[in-house]
């Protein structure tokens, strides 16, 4: 079978199920008695098993099968949830994720999982996990059919098969799970197996074989094969018929209906016991939205086309203004309104919830807190907040770093917390929410807070500031030093953070997607890092300014205020021009000089002032003229001109000319 | 070196009355001069940035790139849009006219210096139309290394 066309689907769904496994495992860890969660975990594992087996990824199928065995024993209350088991199941999920990654990279799913398989097998039998190597040698016969509890084999029945079994029961037939052991010296395993099926032919139907019939025919099994048989005959008669075939060592027959019934009992029992928590999960109708999957390239193409439309709209508006015809004007305004709605819709199409980034954090926090011997609770709010896809893609790494930072440096060890009168468990809040045209992401911990003295000492040591300067800095300024490159206060270098490539990388990554990052902290109470992001990257509202003969665009989001030059009073400090704005001394920058604008004879120079806000201070730009604001499409300058100082991109104006977009954060 | 141009079509252009050639494989289009926006903080030979079909294209002044004397503006000036290794730029030249077919036998290795141009920028010399000579440009060299290094210096 050509499975390539299904591979994409397999990868997509595999990811979804792995995520679900992760989520539900965390839920199980919090409430080990919740059987409904076990059932959900089982279902996801089962689906992965089915999918991977049909795609021919045997290692993956095998591992999930082993997981399933443990889970099945769990939901039949044969074993109890233990921390070891949770760890082992998480480890399995990690392996599965690694396999999926290998598959995505076009490799096979081959991976050494013998260690974890051994653990799972021990767990399944209710044994404690031992690291005895002898055991691993004897038990790691990968994939071999071993003496599993019989129930587990039934667990491999899918929904349709269950349906057949229950229908058969309705018409008075019985379903049997039949396990046939061939003798050790059996030479023609496949032939014997076929003879077994012939012997019972006509007495009922085989609905499933383990392994599948193809493998049985190729003798790809050890000495045991099993099948599910629906028949009206008695088990004794069937057993007798099977034993007529030579070289059969043993035949085990179990009726399946009981198992199903047992499962129902557990479920109903469970529901009465925990009505409030369980019922909504299992019985609430699932709201199904009608959706289609669309290739991202098509959405990108749509956006590109729309950007061209916006540029042409700008041209049209300009022409209409020049012509001054009323009909033309009103028609152009209509196009303006419709295209605005179109813009909103298209950008909405590209929005994805930040959940796609957040959902890996609970696992990460769990692992890290174990590693650090800290007790940490992660509280996520606003995971459904939506951001443009291109931003989400770049958001993962910086957030991982900030979170790690909070866990490592923020939250104290349980003993320390207790001494300071805090609860032993530290809390890290991860919040996302919309605020105007921005998306805010906050990471707040109730840990030690940032020690101003430590920061200044380190900054002085690294030559970032001088001792004299340090005393004059506000707390804000001091905290901001942490984002300077080459700064790391970690006393010992750990795997988690403090590798010297710290917050400066976070800051530059977030700047790259047009965002800013800031920090607030109270010593002893905790810290809060705030990441402020634009809603979308490609179309922004900008103020157009004139410098000599040239036109530049300044993102409205950077502008605090505009005023006329004659309204302000310039002062000179250290031979530099400044102005006082909102009680702050704001550097006054002549953009003409900064941008090396050629001199023109026009007298109209420096008439207006723009106050822009950088992450923690203001700047004043002297410009010749403000031309008004409009929506612009951000274009990159391309690969040839990377990182031009003070310029973040370019846009095409209504008259077809290119205007450069100022990067207010990078001008100093 | 010259195998790049074996049996290749080459677009001819002029700089200071000397003829140069660039393989048609790398040429996207040839445009008439249009509005070019100056970009600050870049190399002097970067004339600025222009737009073509929604794309931003930096334009290189080839006179300045090769430290040649500037020529007078004419109506013949053209911008050859070339693309190589994910880089798309416009080469501002005095004129661009026709295409020639070159066979390997017409191509010779470049002498050290040709028309004041360093050998690094040259892939070879070719004879065409009996007695004419053209210089085959090493586009990769024109577009990368030096600029990349220089730009990095500016950033630092």
UniProtKB/TrEMBL annotation, chain A:
One Pfam family assigned to this protein is P2
> Which reaction(s) are listed as its catalytic activity?
ATP + protein L-histidine = ADP + protein N-phospho-L-histidine
Q: Where is the CheW-like domain?
A: 539-668
* Entry keyword set: ATP-binding, Chemotaxis, Kinase, Nucleotide-binding, Phosphoprotein, Transferase, Two-component regulatory system
Keyword check for Transferase, yes or no: yes
Stretch forming the signal peptide: none
Report domain Histidine kinase positions. 287-537
Q: Where is there biased composition of kind Polar residues?
A: 130-141
Q: Which CDD domains match?
A: CheA_reg, HATPase_CheA-like, HPT
List GO BP terms, alphabetically: chemotaxis
* A molecular-function term among this protein's GO annotations: ATP binding
User: Which residue intervals make up region (Disordered)?
Assistant: 127-153
Give start and end of each HPt domain: 1-103
E.C. numbers: 2.7.13.3
| GO cellular component: a single term | cytoplasm
Q: Which residues carry this modification: Phosphohistidine?
A: 46
Keyword Acetylation in the entry? The reply is no
Q: Give the enzyme's main class according to its UniProt record, as a single word.
A: transferase
Q: What is this protein called?
A: Chemotaxis protein CheA
Q: Which organism is it from?
A: Terrilactibacillus tamarindi
Automatic annotation (TrEMBL), chain B:
Q: Which residues cross the membrane?
A: none
Gene Ontology cellular-component terms listed: cytosol
Recorded hits in SMART domains, A to Z, give: CheW (SM00260)
GO terms classed as biological process: chemotaxis; signal transduction
Instruction: Using the record's annotation, list all stretches that form the CheW-like domain.
Output: 7-148
- What is the name attached to this protein's record? Chemotaxis protein CheW
